[in-house]
Specification:
By secondary structure, this protein is an all-alpha fold. Helix 7 runs antiparallel to helix 9. The chain has two domains: 152 residues, no CATH class; 111 residues, no CATH class.
């Protein structure tokens, strides 16, 4: 079983449950973006008219509604995602039994057995979680950034662009290495699973020499697998740390400049202060996108079973 691209496996896994989950996620993130816009409109209404205006009350209702709505929508989003996962696993295992039964070569049969038992379920769960999280994070990031850039200051978009350019360049540099590390880990995991499946037969019915040889061979396979897993983790998290630092620096510098600059209008400063939590959550979303971009080769490597 070998998938040539992320696109091919994505098309095979997407179904009505996937679209429902992503639709609810879109509503969730859109309501958050609207709440940012409503909070700025409330500031403008208070500064110009006061608390008794009709527009102030309208925007206050919109703001409160958008703050509560995501908690309600997230239930339906999570349930749809779980239904998506269950249907994908059902389709995968149905196809896996057919593929396993068609194998005639002993080596191929053993390798596929190890993969289907230990790797297939983990890969499908990882991919669906990755797909849902990445689309949700992208919506969160793009919608909130659009609103903040329009109603507060356009330079927020520019600061994020600087981070994005660095991330894109670094992704090209590290993608092949991350993909190779992921493939190596999955291959070693499959080999280890195949060896461990013979524990009962070797331990209870083999000779002492065979038993000692089996235990030594299994320890070596275990150490190889764990070593490959740690190598992948070191590279992955070092890349995430480096890109996260560079993604945080430009926007943080801009926030400091806007808050302490005498040329910036007081209403804009107040809007930034009110939405400071949202802005830093936007930075967290940027870090999530960094992680998603860095993890894409990792997911691609897992799919190449």
């Amino acid at each position: 079983m070998k998938f040539e691209s992320v696109r091919s496996i994505a098309l095979s896994l997407f179904n009505k449950h996937a679209w429902l989950a992503l639709s609810f996620a879109s509503i969730h993130q859109l309501s958050i973006a609207i709440s940012v816009y409503a909070s700025v409109q409330i500031i403008y209404e208070v500064n110009s008219v006061g608390f008794d205006s009709v527009d102030f009350k309208l925007w206050a209702v919109v703001y409160l509604t958008c703050m509560v709505l995501p908690y309600c929508v997230s239930y339906f989003s999570d349930m749809s995602r779980e239904a998506w996962l269950c249907s994908a696993l059902n389709d995968f295992w149905s196809a896996a039994t057919t593929i396993y039964g068609s194998c005639t070569n002993k080596t191929d049969t053993d390798n596929i057995k190890g993969i289907l038992v230990s790797q297939g379920k983990e890969t499908i769960i990882s991919f669906i979680g990755y797909s849902f999280h990445s689309i949700s994070a992208l919506l969160n990031f793009s919608l909130s950034l659009l609103v903040i850039s329009v109603v507060l200051d356009y330079r927020f978009a520019l600061s994020i662009l600087v981070s994005a350019l660095f991330i894109a360049a670094y992704k090209v540099y590290i993608s092949k290495t991350m993909e190779w590390l992921s493939e190596t880990r999955n291959t070693q995991g499959s080999i280890l699973t195949k060896k461990l499946s013979a524990i009962h037969e070797n331990y209870h019915h083999g000779s002492s020499i065979n038993r000692d040889s089996f235990q030594s061979d299994t320890r070596l396979s275990t150490e190889t697998y764990l070593s490959s897993r740690m190598r992948e983790a070191r590279s992955k998290y070092a890349a995430m740390l480096l890109t996260s630092l560079f993604s945080l620096l430009p926007t943080t510098s801009l926030v400091v400049f806007l808050l302490f600059s005498p040329q910036i209008d007081a209403a804009i400063k107040l809007g930034i202060v009110v939405n400071l939590t949202r802005i830093y959550h936007l930075l967290a979303s940027a870090n999530e996108l960094v992680s998603i971009i860095i993890l894409l080769p990792n997911i691609k490597g897992q799919l190449r079973l």
